[in-house]
């Protein structure tokens, strides 16, 4: 099934690989109180963001953005055949959902000009590579892969201390194949595509901004995971490397786009995942935008 939005001179497709209950809300958001969850449970459940057993429901997906000049894949999801022993749903999987999603968007791997990773966690780099004759090769053969320099260095150093499997199987083979561009956090490509530093979740985390002369659409990656954090931006996840910085970045993002027309393409929000930021109660919400 294809999900698509047309806005200005951009077309945006969502390529969903998995969606559903992920981690227990209190486990994922260590500062979440039982009282807060009980107050917010009803609307979270109605929005598809919370399961009956209080797990946060997340989508795992990529966005394809077509500008007048380029086809960009933002974050490459989970991937197949990857060694992810701590995540049974991701470990060594072999389903066709991601590739079916590309086909439904009428897109071949050869058409992608740029693969842009907001950061280098396993669920954002997986389809960077696929296995061919026992080796990892770039999935998108003609694409340049854009990695932010500080992010790349963070994971290179971590991998030196102890093996970081996503870095080894989904980032380094792209570098070895000569397809990677290691760029600054404010890198731009032409007049429609630019990075915006949004550190905290990881040190070199970036958001990807699209639109000529204004922010028509933005993919904020993992600076936010759940609609609960839009209402309560101070709630960082246990995966945020610097929780205080992540909270500052999250609030700054919500304030920047609040009550604007910028289409926010959320990485992990439940379907439809795409919406506009609006002020709501003491915080914010992402008001879903219908496809079309
Ligand atoms: Zn993620």
Rg (C-alpha, Å): 18 Å
Task: Give average pLDDT, whole number.
Answer: 97
Structure summary, number of beta strands:
16
Oligomerization status of the protein chains? single chain
Largest sheet: 7 strands, mixed
Shape: globular
Low-confidence stretches: none
Helix content: 25-40%
The hetero molecules present are: zinc ion
Short description:
With 292 residues, this protein is of the alpha+beta class. Helix content is 25%, strand content 30%.
Folded structure, characterized:
A hairpin with a 2-residue loop joins strand 1 and strand 2. The chain contains 9 helices and 16 strands. With 292 residues, the chain is an alpha+beta fold. It has a 7-stranded mixed sheet. Strands 10-11-12-13-14-15-16 form a 7-stranded mixed sheet. The two termini are 14 Å apart. The structure holds zinc ion (ZN). The site of zinc ion has 6 residues, from helix 4.
């Amino acid at each position: 099934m294809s999900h698509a939005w047309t806005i200005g001179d951009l077309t945006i497709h969502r390529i969903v690989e998995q969606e559903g209950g992920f981690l227990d809300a209190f486990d994922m958001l260590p500062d979440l109180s039982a009282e807060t969850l009980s107050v917010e449970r009803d609307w979270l459940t109605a929005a598809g963001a919370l399961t009956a057993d209080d797990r946060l429901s997340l989508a795992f997906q990529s966005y394809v953005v077509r500008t007048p000049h380029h086809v960009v894949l933002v974050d490459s999801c989970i991937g197949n055949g990857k060694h992810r022993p701590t995540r049974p749903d991701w470990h060594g999987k072999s389903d066709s959902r991601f590739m079916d999603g590309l086909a439904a968007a009428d897109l071949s791997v050869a058409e992608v000009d740029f693969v842009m990773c907001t950061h280098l966690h396993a669920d954002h780099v997986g389809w960077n590579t696929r296995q061919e004759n026992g080796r990892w090769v770039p999935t998108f053969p003609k694409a340049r892969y854009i990695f932010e320099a500080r992010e790349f260095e963070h994971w290179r150093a971590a991998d030196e201390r102890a093996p970081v499997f996503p870095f080894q199987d989904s980032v380094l083979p792209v570098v070895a194949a000569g397809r990677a561009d290691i760029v600054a956090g404010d890198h731009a490509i032409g007049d429609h595509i630019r990075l915006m530093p949004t550190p905290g979740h990881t040190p070199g985390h970036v958001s990807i901004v699209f639109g000529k002369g204004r922010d028509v659409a933005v993919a904020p990656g993992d600076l936010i995971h759940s609609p609960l954090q839009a209402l309560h931006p101070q709630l960082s996840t246990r995966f945020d490397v610097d929780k205080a910085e992540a909270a500052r970045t999250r609030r700054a993002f919500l304030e920047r786009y609040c009550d604007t027309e910028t289409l926010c393409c959320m990485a992990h929000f439940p379907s439809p995942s795409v919406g506009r930021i609006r002020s709501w109660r003491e915080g914010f919400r992402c008001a879903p935008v219908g496809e079309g």
